[in-house]
Design a protein that fits this description.
4-stranded antiparallel sheet; 232 residues; globular; 6-stranded mixed sheet; 10 strands; alpha/beta; Rossmann fold
Amino acid sequence: MLEVNNLTKKYGRRLVLDDVSMTFERGKITCLLGLNGVGKSTTMKAIMQMIPVKSGEFLLDGEPITSKNIDRIAYVPDLPIYNMGLTCDQNLQIAAELYDDFNLEKAERLIEFLKLPRKKKLRELSKGNLARFNLIVGLCQNADVVLLDEPFSGIDVFTRETFIAAMKSEFIEPGQTVVLTTHEINEVQDVADTVILLEDGVVFKTFSKDDALAEGLSIIDKMRTLYQGGKQ
């Protein structure tokens, strides 16, 4: 289980996250939702210790996240972080050297599943194919937790459908925790087990897909109900 406790982050004088706490359950896909600028990506970067924070505690299975256990978390940013002048295959070989548990056999299956042009250099790929490549690297680290930062951003509807198919398939390991940030809320219905809504620097609401279904609502309808109720 991944926990964020009492996270506060400022950029200059702007308070982005104000004493935020949230829990991401083991084996679940949690969607962290909100408008641009509400702190979704900031939360992920704070978990990965990529940015300084005013306060906050980050726990993985009850233990503080440090250099000793952070490799149990795979972080997939919305921009490529690998060598744009090398091919997909060459970059995957580099990933296999960087990550001790990287699963090349799984990467091969994902390349076929996602129809990635493996012999092309990353700089020759469309944004959708770059997103596919990022997903492959994230899922093949065999990490306990996978953080996906805006994987749907700027890609076409068919690529989004392929993403969702991959996340609902055997490519997600049993017990693996997935956290996904997005503002493309229409895609959430088919993938989320739990939804966390961020607004004005705080957690506005948290609910599960089962909560919504018990009320006869889709996830989108549940969100609409919460926001309308919260604004009255």
